[in-house]
Structures are given as C-alpha cells and as structure tokens.
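Continuing the batch. This is chain 6 of the set; chains 1 through 5 are on the previous pages. Same settings as before, nothing changed between runs. Recording input and output for traceability.
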Amino acid sequence: MSEIIVECGVAETRGARLVDGESTDLWTGPAPGQEAVDSIWRKGDLACGRITAVHGDQLFVDLGQGRVGYLNTPLSAPPEGALINVVVKRPAFADKSVSLNFQGLARQSAKIGAMAPPAPAPLQALRDLEFDPGTETIKLDLWARRQLEASAASDIISGRIEAKTIETPHAFDIWFEQLFARQLPLAGGGAITIDENEALTAIDVDSGAARTRNEREVSKVNIAASNAISSELRRRRIGGLVVIDFLRMRRDQRSMVVSALHSRRLAPQHLDWSKNGLLSFSLPRTGPSFLDMACETGVDDPIPGRRYSLGWRAKSLLRRLERRLATDLSVRFACSLGDELSAYIDAREDWRDGLIARHGDRVQFITDANKESRSYEFSEQ
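Output for chain 6:
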C-alpha cells in the first residue's frame, strides 16, 4: 500500500511517500503562509521570460530578479528578445540554472516573472511527490487540511479525492536524520557505506560477518545491498555519477542490480561494469540532493567538508520538538541552544508564536555559550 502524508509545521511543510509503512520519498517546503517568500522555484511553476540568447539547440531566458533559465529550442524557435511563457521542469540548484519547458509566446505587455501566486505548500508537496490518485491515498494533518480548505483550489477539497486526517505526527525527524547516515547495516548481515561528493557518489558493499568464500552468502549480501542502495539513491535524491563496489558477483547475477534500480523508479544511464567488478552509471539530476539542501561547506558535520546550515539545524530541532509536543501533551521542555542557533531562532518570532498557538507555552529556549554554536539538546522540565 502506498500513501502520501503531508504535515505542516511552524517552520516548514513536510511530505513523504510511505510504501508498506516505509518512507521511500521525502519532501520539505515552505511553512503555511510562507509560500510567497520562498525563493525556490519548484517543478510546475509557471513564468514569463525574455529570450536573451540562442546557442545551438538551447534558448536562454531572463526570468527576472536575477534568475536565468534555459530550454531546448522548440521547432519554431522565437527570436531573441521575444517574451515566452514557460513552466519549470527542474529547479535551480548548485551551479545549475532553472530548466524550463516552452509553453508558447507571451503577450508583449506581459511582465517577466512568476505568472501566478505559488500554490499552497501541501499542494506543492503532492505535486512534487507526484501523487497518483489512482493508486495512492492521502493523509493530512489538521493544518495542512485547513490550508487546502482556505485555498479552495484542490480536488481534495471538492471531494473528488478523499484525504484522511493524521491523528499522530509521523517520525519525520528520524527519517530526515537517516538521510545522512554514512553506513547502513543490511538485513541478514553486511553493510553499505555511502560517500556523496560533488564529483560522484561512491558506495562500498561490506560483507560483515558473512563468509566471503561461500557463494550463497555473498549473493545474499549483494541482493540485500542492491535493494538498499536503490532505495537510498531515491530517498536521498542523489544524481550524477554513481560508482558501486559490490562483493564478488557472477556476470549472470548482474541483472538483479539493474532490476533493483528500475524497481525504485530510478533511470540509470550509461551502465558499465569494469573488469574489477565496479558498477558505474549516472542518474539524472532533478534538483539538489538532501545533502546539498541541508549543508554548506564547513567542518565535518555530518560528513567531511560539509556542515549543517543554520536553517537546517533549526528545522531539525523543531521537527523533533513538534512531534514530542504533539504526543506528550502535558510535558514542558527546555531547549539548550548554541549561541549561533539561538540567535537564528530568536530572529524568527513567528516560529515561537506558532509553537505557542498550537501547543501552549510549553517550551523554554536557553542560550548556552558553552555549547557548540549550532548544537542543541532538549529535555523535559
């Protein structure tokens, strides 16, 4: 059974696809009411732009406010300087510009920029997670449902699609933390190690306690690793070059790896097995990976050369805190924060106001100059 769940926190909206209770896709976006100030253009957003250059089979488009996008030249290419309507195919990330699809010529009186106000965050989640009403169900928390009711622009509200109500918040805090685990144990023994870097993602399969001279044991580890790797590549939104070092594998067993990749709706390209048994392939980059979203260049947290951004650390705290507040209804909490993180949260009064409005005044934030500047911990009072 597959279902899409959407929960609206005070600092972000969170979404996930659950298949038989396991999260296979995760999503995070603006909090309710913050869609208009969210600087990220998302898949499906409509815009008007001006063609600034034509290079070979690509058009480059000025989208306003310093944004530049590109698209493949349509059959009847408009001239340089023309105004065109476009839809976002892939948002900008790292050094990649916005990828666009051509929607037709725009009126010459049209203004460059977004053509419509952004959709409510819960609808953005359903769209980006590619909700399939024919095979999937929806669950919404109270605030996601309220926002959709206020928008009155959804098949969910019209009754054409039924959405159940979430009674107990899901473990988004745990799911997001698992995205950055470097080593993952495999069912039945063994482990995989995932090293995501700018140039490529390297994955190593370790036999653990399995007997490497026993072909049956080796095959079991490789099968478990194939399924786990495919799931993690999708869940972490990893794109680009991937290189995997499996245990010794017969040629006739290699097809199971490809089957596992396709079963997770991945689209591997340029698959190649080296003489030493290394598998390499590339995955389309449809946006930033979760590691890119959560981190900046810095000290080794969570991995060498990467550091959690202040925004991600703050939202990580709130994910944990909001779940505890919603499940432990009579408990008060004290949050001890490093000075950098404390200043970041202090500057966002709407987050604190939101916590009080939803859960009462049950959280005390305390600055601790002795803590690492972006660290936190909370305890029951």
